[in-house]
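Recap from last week: sequence in, structure out.
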Amino acid sequence: MSSTLGTLLKISTFGESHCKGVGAIVDGIPPRMTLREEDIQPQLDRRRPGQSIISTPRQEKDTVTILSGVENGVTLGTPIGLLVSNRDQRPGDYKEMNNVPRPSHADFTYEMKYGIRASSGGGRSSARETIGRVAAGAIAEKFLHETYGVDIISWVSAVGSLDATDMTGNNLTRQEVDQTDVRCPDKTVVEGMHEAIVSARDTGDSLGGVLTCICRNVPAGWGEPIFDKMEARLAHAMLSLPATKGFEIGAGFEGTKMKGSEHNDPFIKKESRLGTVTNHSGGIQGGITNGEPIIFRVAFKPPATIRKAQKTTGFEGQSVTLEAKGRHDPCVVPRAVPIVETMTALVLADLALRQQAKRTR
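Predicted structure tokens:
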């Protein structure tokens, strides 16, 4: 099913950009865990539009309602229904684009696949679909932190051609990440990143970027051999996000420039467990976590919908000069931070439950 993720912890998202609401069904959260809307809302607040001058001006409170699966603030072990209403829909902004597939957007491919598409705001291909993921992932984050002490932190490490200093993130907090609207903790480049995004916005253009994510306190042993390797599941989750075009873990592509003697992570005794001296593997070996921090990066392309005039071709073959209307982010990476964190939590929680099942047999 194209809108469902997970094995023991399953989520299914629903809704389009300009319908009445979006949300998710979460199945597999254990019973007797305390859960209220205020546990979920902070990550939705970090994702919501209209946060600053470098994000879309669409105004949505994105307030979540728990519909089912929770009674008196405690999970029942049954499916949890989550709903966020759309308040500031403007489908009329897309009227002129009904017969024109926007360059590098999903208009053309959805039309070819289904013979129909939601022409307002991209429908399911819109980043608004990620609200359901974030709401569901916030629950997974709570489960992981309370059960295992796992912390997941993501930050902006590149915008356009501007790169932040390579950071391990070992002591980084979300409060530090959120100190600026760019969500880059490197103070030497954050101002330049902000100015670059504003410049792109003012000229009707857009910029891409890179997010780095670190998962701390993940126990050794999570992940499955072969097809459900931890890094494979993370890559699947990240590349399912709108606008993503690349994923690398640990040393990633830079690791191809090293010799084996340089890339290998020798083991060392760390208090009561074995650990590694370096972490070029990114916390995963053989598809299974080794107890070191998981660290990976996700590349996001520039948003496809821009105001700058583009010469293209309509569905009927007519030449068109397209100047897209609507409200769009000039760079998605600052708002993608909580999306990457919560999607990571969904993968980790699912594989944690699978490991629990093995240990209790």
